[in-house]
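User: Just a sanity check before I run the rest of the batch. Below are the structure tokens for the first item. I only need the designed sequence back.
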């Protein structure tokens, strides 16, 4: 999501986005931020800020899902009971 840093002072501030205002502490910030800066951020499943990406930070990309190849057995082994 995209937003803007506002009221940032002494390690706390707000992220303004189109649909909400989020309060944050500096512990959630990766990189450097300043008041009025456009940033990207993530929220968790409860709608709370999870991380703020400041400047000089590479944004994480969604990893590609690798399909596991199942090894085909060369010979099928049938388990049977032996009669004595």
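Assistant: Here's the designed sequence for the first item:
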């Amino acid at each position: 999501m995209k937003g803007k840093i506002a009221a940032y002072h002494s390690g706390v501030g707000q992220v303004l986005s189109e649909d909400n205002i989020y309060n944050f502490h500096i512990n959630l910030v990766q990189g450097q931020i300043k008041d009025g800066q456009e940033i990207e951020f993530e929220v968790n499943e409860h709608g709370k800020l999870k991380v703020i990406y400041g400047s000089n930070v590479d944004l994480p990309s969604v990893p590609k899902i690798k399909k596991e190849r199942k090894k085909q057995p060369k010979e099928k082994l049938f388990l049977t009971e032996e009669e004595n």
